[in-house]
Design a protein that fits this description.
About 15% of the residues lie in helices and about 40% in strands. InterPro entries: CAP_dom, CAP_sf.
Length: about 325
Amino acid sequence: MLTGLLGLTAGAPALRNPPFRLSGGATDVAWRWSAALAAAGTLSRDPSLGADMDADGPSGWSTVGESVANGGTADVVVDAWMASPPHRANILNLRFTVIGVGSVTGAGKTWSITEFADVADARAPTTTPEGAGPVTTTPLTSAGRLGTVSPSGVLAVKHGRLLSSWTTVGTGVTGYALDGLRLGVINSAGVAAVKEGDVSAPWVLVPSGVSQLAMAATRLAVVTNGTVIAKDGPLTVPWVVLTSADSVTMWGNRIGVLSGRQVLLTEGFSGRRAVLATPGVQALALSDNRVGIVAGSTISVKEGGLDAGWVGVFDGVQLTLSS
């Protein structure tokens, strides 16, 4: 299956003379898009090709193009491109003087990308096309992962760009959390499970009666039957009982819990603890070195250490903090 993008500035096909030169920047763009397609399991053109070439490709280009293929050896892909008029036009377009090549194999298929440009760059690629040396993939993070739960409780997740395909990973879901390569879910019966890595990885069950779960880096915490338990490290390490609480949230090394509308903050599992004196807290938010609470219709925020004073008080009922 093939798809192609004609050059952004059209040119008449002709016999190639001289041959292409390899562009390190265009190779990086090609490799990253082929890796994104392999992770998503779909085949499509790069909708942000111009912006990607501006960011990572050769500088000063005025004409770029792209050819995309899924499946087949290099010879088969090139023969198919040459048999396709738009792909052949890309290859023979004399406006294009340099190319970048990326090829990534995943789930038994190979995604091959060729980027074309009219300007060369001097640098070597930071990633290498298949056949020219080892390809080191960059693990996807939560920045490249998106989850959604349908009204019927079906959880679907996608990796990479917004145009990538959805993968159903759970049903009967009432809550979920994403962080890095970890995914956690809760169903209506209070059964929770967590997986790490690819969405097809096996689930690891969490103790029953779970009403909430939170994740941050290597840390995982859940509220089960009114008690917060947590672990730090691989999913196989033992759970640690923290405290009785109604809800839990985490950011970086900080863990915050609400218990009887009182907030308890902890630096790590066994680090310094602080109880916020403000009563009647209904919601808690953490971000880097900030803490925010909602009490009634009042929002309060502090910054710095756990003992820092409140630096702002606002009217409101909902609070979101960002780094």
